[in-house]
From TrEMBL:
This is Beta-lactamase-related domain-containing protein. Residues 1-23 form the signal peptide. It comes from Actinophytocola xanthii. Keywords: Signal. InterPro entries: AmpC-like, Beta-lactam-related, Beta-lactam/transpept-like. Transmembrane segments: none annotated. Residues 34-343 form the Beta-lactamase-related domain.
């Protein structure tokens, strides 16, 4: 009886400590979100899944003019969270024998890119193709110059060609890679990329509020989007022509649908386990202290306590999103905000802090090897 009572007391104490620690973590997470709003982010929503439990935190408003609250399950332009979804379709086509990692651009899309015979599908997926990023072109420096232009995928690739390419093999983040993967999917299947994503990813995963839109609108509940370049003014931008983003960063989704995507990927609804594992293990070093490795359409996030997280970051004029979790997707964090400010390291650090707080109970800091030398915490944008 005494040993049973002692065990019960220990369990009760542990539960009390765990509850207190969780409450403290949530308080710190809320402070990070509030700090983002204080620094100019109009609104931000964080959602957490931890096994069968979930919780949500938010700061700011949906509309700066009316002060309307953030919608409960609002939609965001989740930008480069598009990349793991496109990668999933490519790996499905591998599994079906309709593509292979070694297939080259020269075979699949002949004449589109100089040196295409030396660039493989696998290199496109983990950004080692050497292809220039069309977003680095001067015409993409100011959103006001391009968000209402109509682009074809060929237009985007042509812009990248004009920048000049490097020799394949070295890692370099490039949205051009995923535009080309979108074109490959359409060439192999004979169907529109948006339809392929809907049938192969969104529906099987239960992502009913997710789409790759052709239209300029954010349908359903959503926060107004904004962007700020450097020290310039904050500009409202919710509607836009999404053709400049397309297969690289054009998807619209909710936080909950992003949770559903990672869960469906982990439990085998979208890909066999061996291919999901390959998305993570077939990875290359990036040199970024926060996101040190890039796999097949997925990023690894460094945490201070050694928990390995996989997911992706995303930013597009109007919105920024970060979504990371454990390999089994039992624990996940999604943070979506209504501000695109690519050079604002403070905003990025607050977002990364929320993830590290949830998994490690402390704010993020760079790896020890990075502390003694210059480093930059930046989005691998968009």
């Amino acid at each position: 009886m005494r040993s049973t009572s002692l065990l019960a007391a220990v369990v009760a104490a542990l539960l009390l400590w765990t509850g207190t620690a969780a409450a403290d973590t949530r308080t710190e997470v809320q402070r990070e979100l509030d700090a983002m709003v204080d620094a100019g982010v109009p609104g931000v929503v964080l959602t957490v899944r931890d096994g069968d439990r979930s919780w949500r935190a938010e700061a700011g408003v949906s509309d700066l003019d009316t002060g309307a609250p953030l919608p409960r399950n609002g939609r965001f332009r989740v930008a480069s969270l598009t990349k793991p979804m496109v990668a999933t379709v490519v790996l499905q086509l591998w599994h079906e024998g309709r593509l292979s990692p070694e297939d080259t651009l020269g075979e699949l899309l002949p004449g589109l890119v100089p040196g295409a015979e030396g660039v493989s599908v696998e290199q496109l997926l983990h950004n080692t193709s050497g292809l220039a990023d069309y977003v680095a072109a001067p015409e993409f420096a100011d959103p006001a110059d391009y968000v209402w232009r109509r682009f074809t995928p060929e237009d985007l690739v042509r812009t990248a060609n004009e920048l000049g390419h490097r020799t394949p093999g070295q890692w370099g983040y490039s949205n051009t890679n995923f535009v080309l993967l979108g074109m490959i999917i359409e060439r192999v299947t004979g169907e529109d990329l948006a339809d392929q994503l809907r049938e192969r990813v969104f529906r099987p995963a239960g992502m009913h509020a997710t789409e790759l839109p052709r239209h300029p609108f954010l349908r359903g509940p959503h926060a107004s989007g904004h962007y700020r370049i450097g020290s310039g003014p904050r500009v409202e931008l919710t509607e836009l022509d999404p053709s400049f983003a397309w297969a690289a960063y054009g998807v619209v989704a909710t936080n909950e649908d992003l949770h559903r995507f990672w869960s469906a990927l982990a439990d085998g609804r979208l890909l066999p386990a061996a291919l999901v594992e390959r998305m993570r293990t077939d990875a290359v070093a990036t040199g970024n202290p926060a996101w040190p490795r890039y796999g097949l359409g997925v990023e690894e996030m460094y945490t201070t306590c050694g928990v390995r997280l996989w997911g992706h970051t995303g930013a597009i004029p109007g919105y920024s999103t970060l979504s990371f979790g454990t390999a089994d997707a039992r624990r996940q964090v999604v943070v979506s905000s209504s501000l695109f400010s690519p050079t604002d390291g403070t905003q990025i650090l607050h977002i990364v802090n929320t993830v590290n707080l949830e998994f490690c109970g402390e704010p993020w800091r760079p790896p020890p090897a990075q502390v003694a030398k210059p480093w930059c915490l930046g989005w691998p944008l968009p």
